[in-house]
Amino acid sequence: MVRLSKENYERAKDYIFREGRELERAMFQFYFQGGSKEAVLLALSKYQNEDGGFGHSLESDAALEVSNCLATSVAFQIICKLGLSAEDMMVKRGIEFLIRNYKKEFNGWLWFPPEINEVPRAMWWNFDSNEENKYMPNPAVELTGYLIKFKELVPEELLEEAVYAAMKYLNENNHSLSMHDIFCYQRMAEFLPENEKISMLHILEQPILREVELDHQKWTDYVARPLSYIHSPSDELAKIFTGEQISSNLDYIIQSQNEEGSWTPNWNWGRFNEQWELAKKEWSGKIALDNLILLKAFGRI
């Protein structure tokens, strides 16, 4: 079994502190050095705007300062990992932003406002007004999960509509969920009552097995791997893969670390090359942090 050596762990840490953002540095200290939750929240607060939403390129593929639902979803991923309550002002303001930007006509949200078309961004991020009023599980399902988590802050009718739409889409389209749709349902499941969570994860098993690429030679491409959906040995979904498949994925992560100590994103913007180089460093720092957290969870450091 391959383990990340002390030397390579230090190289990853050094990269995060040399090239990573303040947020990733604070999170590294929180997860590995006894750092405080308050330091992470201070770093995260710099991405929150007066309207309660998050922006300022928190999601590094979109260099947008103004509040948007994509950046807000990323912020709530961190908020929930830190265990904040509905009493926290960061949470209250963020949920208020999501409520104001909820589109009743399709029971969901737009990733971005029109301003996204005016800034450097990845080729897949453009403004879409969704004039056809299609339900978009990505981001609606994930954001619905945060409304469930902090339901005391959400109007009951809005919450019921959002949850109904998410479950209806899952029941009708579970055979065709994309990789990112599955991520959104997996995040939503975390905030459901235990029996409903287990039921949703069970429904997701076949879509995950369909989406996951098991050929490690193809893992340099932008594909789902077993550990795209599993974050610790105790995860409910870990049972759908063999120990060998999970071990192979862990080996790949360790062996694909580059000489700088980071892991290079397996995508690029395809435009705005100068800005992409800056975003790539941010992503490399975030991927390094995520990989270290994952390897720690599996006892591979």
Could you describe the 3D structure shown?
The protein has eleven helices and no strands. The protein has 301 residues and is an all-alpha fold. The protein has a domain of 166 residues. InterPro entries: Terpenoid_cyclase/PrenylTrfase.
In this structure, how is the largest beta sheet organized? none
The ordered H/E elements are: HHHHHHHHHHH
SSE class: mainly alpha
**Oligomerization:** single chain
How far is the N terminus from the C terminus? 11 Å
Query: How many DSSP E strands?
Result: 0
Mean pLDDT: 97
Rg value:
19 Å
Gross morphology is: globular
Unreliable runs: none
Number of helices: 11
How large a portion of the residues is in β-strands, by DSSP E? under 5%
Please estimate the helix content: 40-55%
Protein name: Prenyltransferase
InterPro entries: Terpenoid_cyclase/PrenylTrfase (IPR008930)
Organism: Clostridium omnivorum
Put the structure in a nutshell.
This is Prenyltransferase. This protein is an all-alpha fold and 301 residues long.
Topology at a glance:
Blueprint: H1 6-19, H2 22-32, H3 37-45, H4 69-81, H5 89-100, H6 137-149, H7 156-173, H8 179-189, H9 194-211, H10 243-255, H11 273-297
Helix pairs in contact: 1-11, 2-3, 2-11, 4-6, 6-7, 6-8, 8-9
Protein name: Prenyltransferase
Organism: Clostridium omnivorum
InterPro entries: Terpenoid_cyclase/PrenylTrfase
